Structures are given as structure tokens and as C-alpha cells.
Model the fold of this input.
Amino acid sequence: MKPVINEFFPGLEKIPWISLGSYPTRVEKLEKMGEARGFTDLYIKRDDRSSPVYGGNKVRKLEYMLADAQKKGKRTLITLGGAGSNQVLATGIFGHELGFKVTGIMMDQANAKYVRKNLLLDKYYDIKLVYTKDTLSEILSFAGEYIGSMLNGGKPYFVTAGASSPIGNMGFVNAGFELKKQIENGECPEPDYIIAACGSIGTSAGLQLGCILAGLKTKIVAVRVAYPWLVTKWRMKRMIGDIIKLMKKYDSTVPSVDVSEEELILLGDYLGEDYAAFTDLGCQCVDDMRELEDIELEHTYTGKALGGGLDWLKKQGKSNSTILFWNTYNSVDLSEKAATIDYKTLPKKFHKYFTEPVQEETWKG
Ligand SMILES: Cc1ncc(COP(=O)(O)O)c(C=O)c1O
Done:
């Protein structure tokens, strides 16, 4: 199915796009979780099932980015992320399916069980992994890999961190239109708020713009899960402007949208000590969602986002508002594939994630 947004702005047909997922993703009511947290109308958007191969929020972005890479005749993708990055894995899975070679520059991060699983899957999907310990070595490694790839047959395509770029973020502008259609079809009420994890910002920026263009009153509650210097309202506003610029290039009927920083909601109090460092609130939320709704979140993005978003909305007196949690985490179980890989076949620098302790996941109350 083509992006719904093209029906409203036909010029956008010319933006490269390839189908990787299945839409619309369902909206369901979280009765028990809502009751437990004191919210009357809490819903979930099941983007965890955006593809039967590998779900989560990266699918919508990669549909645009990988099509762009194909159109530009690229054969190699280079991307960046934390050692347990979902984005690098998603790029590897879909990139592999489309015949690209994929390199992931992986930055050191707090250890966790999911880091192990994702690294094994990175190997399973034949991603070339390069370990880096900090931002400087990440930049140097990136430059080295980029030049190496050029010497070996052509410039690679850069899949930006989190797959957030104007073209990738189009996936979430389109998601706003998808939601609008679901509301019109009576599948769900119009949300007052959408809660989303905010790492590289593209999901939240794209969704906020999509909701505005689709004529929804919905405000995005972006919960910051990465560093304060990286995730700012200024960057979110700029990203929205950059997406609009891209859209206007393809379709001059796209209206100008001016969102001020004051209108954006970005919560900075729920990160905890570091990116990927688990918090009590996040762990408790993951436990409750598993117990009450039989839905698996994780502790780096979605647990922090839902736990933090609900905490903030409660404090704002919004218990009776219509709230939609956008589940950005994959729920396709790939553990059998991971189990076929021996960690010793990974580059040596990644072995420590398998020999050193992982963070405790359960909230002790
Ligand atoms: C599961 C999950 N949720 C949310 C995000 C954050 O989305 P964004 O980077 O678009 O802000 C990411 C990735 O970065 C992710 O892996």
C-alpha cells in the first residue's frame, strides 16, 4: 500500500518509497493499564507490528530511506548507533533483504540483555560491526569506513543515526495521516496526546507535523531518552522545518507550518543517569505492561516513554484526556535466529557485552 499522504499531496508520489511494512497498524485500548494508572482513555498504536519480519518505528523511516538509496544506485549502507541499536539491526534486516551490504558503527553503551540479542542478530543478518568507545572514535571510524567503501566500488548511503533525516521522517508524517484515517473510520478516538520515545527525534517531529497537516488537534508528548545536548526543542523545530522544505520541493500545495518551540512538548526528566541506563519508573512500566496487557516493552525507549509520559500527564491533570501510546519497539520474536549465533564469532571488542554483567530489569518496588 502506498503512503496515505500521497492521496492528499499527489506530488509526493515522486519521493522514493518502497513497501516494507503492513499498515495501518492497529490501535487498541489499554484497559487494564489505564485503570492501574488512573487514566480513562489510554490506547496503544501497535507499530511494534509494523512488519511481520521486524516491527518498530524504523520500518516507516526505512521505507523512504532505502528506496532513496536504491534510486541513487547505492550498494552499501553505513549507519550508526549504540552497541544494542534497534536501528542498526532494522537497517541490516531490510538492507539485507534488498541486497545492500550494511556496516554499523556501534558506540559503547550500558550493557543489557537486549544488547546481546541485537548483536547476535546483527551477525545473523551479516552486518559488518565496528566498535567505537566514544564520539570521536565514532567519527573517525565512520570516515574510515566511508572512504574504504568508496575505494571498493562507490559511495555508500548514509543511514543517519536513528534513521532520522527529512526523507526518513516522512514515514511519520505519513503515520499522522494513517491515524487520521483510522479516526475517520471509527477505529479509535482522536487523541489529545500521543506519547512517544524521543531519541534521534524524527519519530516525534514527523508525527507532530503529520498531525498538524492532517488537521488533528493531537499534541506529541516526546519523552527524551538520550542526551540533553542532542535532544532539544530547537532541533525538533528545525527537523519539522526540514521535512516541510522537502515536501514543498515535491508538491507546492503543501502548506507552510510554523511551530514554535513553546508549542512542542519535550520531557527531559525521565532519562535517568544515561542513555540506556534503566530507571525504576521505566522498569515498573515494562513489568506492568507485561503483566496487565501481555505487551513487551523494553527499558531504553518505550518503558521510559510510557512511564514518563503518563507520570507527566497525571501531574498536568490530564487523567481524562484521550492518550495514545505509540509503541515504537519491535515485537517479532527473533530469539531462535539469535540462538544460532555464537558470540565469539563477533569482533573481539563486542565480547565484553557477553561476559560482563547486564543491568537488572525487574523493578523491586
Ligand atoms: C524502540 C525505539 N523506540 C524509539 C526510538 C526513538 O525514535 P527516534 O530516534 O525517531 O526519536 C528508537 C530509536 O532510536 C527505538 O529503537
